[in-house]
Amino acid sequence: MESKNMKPNEVTLVNVLTACARARDLRTVKRVHEYRDEHSFGFHLVLNTALMDAYCKCGCISLAKDLFEAMPVNNLFCWNILIKGYVEDSQYEKALLLFREMQFKGLNGDKVTNVSLLLACSN
What we know:
One of its GO terms (biological process) is RNA modification. PPR repeats lie at residues 75-109. This protein is mainly alpha-helical and 123 residues long. The protein has 2 domains: 1-73, no CATH class; 74-123, no CATH class. The protein is 72% helix and 0% strand. It has helices spanning 10-23, 26-38, 45-57, 61-70, 76-88, 92-104, 111-122. The protein is elongated. The N and C termini lie far apart (44 Å).
């Protein structure tokens, strides 16, 4: 796209991140993150959650957590991505602590949260 002087928008970047997450392509995920920052996309909840999800699926939970903490708004989907990321990375205690923090902030979990918590507790 860039070679043809076309600028990707948020939807394009989300689709690229989804493909990168499936392929576990951390290098490209980081490039998309840099592109987002360099081109002043600002706060875009869907783009940021896709970025968090891609980092988690690539095994970079700390980068996902940094992004999560920098976001001005975290909805249940954001919390679930990070909780599930911790579980998939075998960081079960961190998943449970994050769930407690989520509850403290007044959010209730859903079925996705419960599945992640069950997996954390069973390990």
